[in-house]
Specification:
The protein is mostly helical and 78 residues long. Helices cover 51% and strands 5% of the residues. It is built from five helices and two strands; from the N terminus they run βαααααβ. A two-stranded antiparallel sheet has the order 1-2.
Length: 78
């Protein structure tokens, strides 16, 4: 099972990064996030819970204000 955490509003997340005085690239470097992975998240990919926490900590907002907790997805393996 895994937690599903889509970004509520990618434009808002981009704005929060900008308000910190960062570009997406500088934010990713500063917070130990791959630039490519962060770009994918900003384009709709769902991050891991650990990555969602890094991002929310980096912008200084609670994780549930940025990411939508949609429940638990069951694994397709048995």
């Amino acid at each position: 099972m895994s937690v599903v955490l889509p970004v509520k509003d990618t434009d808002e997340l981009r704005s929060l990064i900008s308000l910190k005085g960062e570009t997406v690239r500088s934010f990713s470097l500063k917070h130990g996030i791959s630039y490519g992975y962060l770009s994918q998240i900003l384009n709709g990919r769902e991050p891991s819970p650990k990555m969602a926490k890094k991002i929310s900590d980096g912008v200084g907002k609670p994780i549930d204000s940025i990411f939508l907790f949609t429940g638990v997805a069951k694994s397709k393996t048995r």
